[in-house]
Amino acid sequence: MSSGHPSGKAHSCGMNSAFTWSYDNLCIVFPWWHLSSKNDLLIGCLGVALWAYLYEYMKYYIYNTQRHNASNVSSRYATSLWYGAQVGVSFLLMLVMMTYNGYLMLSVVAGAILGHFHWGSRVSHTHIADLSLACH
C-alpha cells in the first residue's frame, strides 16, 4: 500500500525559501527531527530555545575559563575544544534560522535573550565579540 509519498516514505523534509509559519513537512536540521503535529512543534521550539540558551552559556564558560586560566596550557586546550563546540552550535542555530520558520526563528531569539540575560551579565561586554563566530 502506498503512503502517498514518493519512494514510499512516510514523510519528507520540506525546504522553504520564504518566511512561513507552517510546520508541515518541517525538519529541524536533521531528517529524524521531523515535525508532524503541534506537540512536535512545541517540543522542537523548546529544544531550539535550549540550544540558543546553551550557546550563550558556552560563551560565558569560555570567557570565564580564559580569564582565570590563560597561562595554563591544558586549560587552553580544553577552552579550544569548548570554542569548537560553540562554533558548531552557532552553525546549527544558523541552519535553524535557514528553515525560514517563524516559530523556530523566534525560539532561537528567545533562547538567546534568556541565555544572554542569565549569562551575558556575567561577561565583560567588550570581550563578547571576541568569543565566537556567532551566526545568530
Explain the overall architecture.
- The protein has 136 residues and is mainly alpha-helical.
- It has one domain.
- Helices cover 54% and strands 3% of the residues.
- The relative contact order is 0.17.
- Its main location: membrane.
- This is Copper transport protein.
- Belongs to the copper transporter (Ctr) (TC 1.A.56) family. SLC31A subfamily.
- Pfam families: Ctr.
H/E series: EEHHH
- Average per-residue pLDDT, rounded, comes to 82
The backbone outline, from C-alpha atoms, is elongated
Tally of separate helices: 3
Q: Report the span from N to C terminus.
A: 44 Å
Fraction of residues in β-strands: under 5%
Secondary structural class = mainly alpha
Main sheet overview: 2 strands, antiparallel
Across the major sheet, the strand order is: 1-2
Structural domain count: 1
Counted beta strands: 2
Q: Helical amount among residues, as a percent range?
A: 40-55%
Radius of gyration computed on alpha carbons: 18 Å
Spans of at least 5 consecutive residues whose pLDDT stays below 50 are 1-9
Brief digest:
The chain has helices spanning 38-68, 73-97, 102-119; strands spanning 26-27, 34-35. It is mainly alpha-helical and 136 residues long.
Summarize this structure as a short list of keywords or feature phrases:
3% strand; copper transport; transmembrane; two-stranded antiparallel sheet; disordered N terminus; copper ion transmembrane transporter activity; transmembrane helix
Topology:
Layout (H helix, E strand, L loop, with lengths): L25 E2 L6 E2 L2 H31 L4 H25 L4 H18 L17
Antiparallel strand pairs: 1-2
